[in-house]
Specification:
This protein has helices spanning 18-32, 37-47, 50-62, 68-79, 85-93, 103-116, 123-133, 136-143, 150-166, 172-176. By secondary structure, it is mostly helical. The chain folds into two domains: 18-79, no CATH class; 85-176, no CATH class. α7 packs parallel to α9 (150-166).
């Protein structure tokens, strides 16, 4: 019995969802039991049109031993739709400093989320958000100081964090001194 399920067409014209395309492609491949990479690529070529097909041909010519996973990654880089601002802003709810995380790691996650949301913050706003996300014992110390830049807030929080990691019994009053 011949497989009658066809892959959806993907043109890469900007109004398509590449994640949805790859989800359907994976589902069809699994349902058909296709595991041979050459067969997968041949079938995939028939599903790509316009810009997506042109990009696939260029990528395949530049990378002779390419597998389908590499093709997916390359096409997603080229044609993935950016997250909506609303989806990205939801990411802010998930940001909080975790025990054992350094202030630098927190700042990197904050910067990435700001980037994903396609937002631009002044240094002062970034500083305020950063301090608000710190663990309470670091936040209380920083909020009592007159810090105006993110770089200074990060520097001080890193020193405080390192001090507390070296001596966990150190009290907040001793840190203020």
């Amino acid at each position: 019995m011949a497989n009658t399920v066809k892959f959806p067409l993907f043109k890469g014209l900007g109004n398509e969802d590449s994640d949805q395309f790859w989800f359907i492609v994976r589902a069809i491949r699994e349902a058909q039991g296709v595991t041979d990479d050459h067969i997968e690529k041949t079938t995939l070529v028939n599903a790509l049109k316009d810009r997506a097909l042109t990009r696939y041909i260029k990528y395949s010519n530049d990378n002779r031993n390419v597998v389908v996973a590499d093709i997916q990654e390359a096409l997603n880089r080229e044609f993935s739709r950016p997250k909506s601002e609303a989806q990205s802003i939801v990411g802010f709810k998930e940001i909080a400093m975790q025990p054992g995380e350094t202030p630098w790691e927190l700042d990197q996650r904050l910067k990435y989320t700001i980037y994903e949301a396609n937002m631009s913050l002044t240094d002062g706003q970034h500083h305020e958000w950063f301090v608000a996300l710190l663990l309470p014992h670091l936040r209380s110390v920083l909020s009592q100081q007159k810090i105006t830049t993110q770089a200074k807030a990060l520097e001080i929080s890193m020193r405080l964090h390192e001090t507390l990691m070296q001596d966990p019994n150190l009290g907040i009053q001793q840190i203020h001194a």
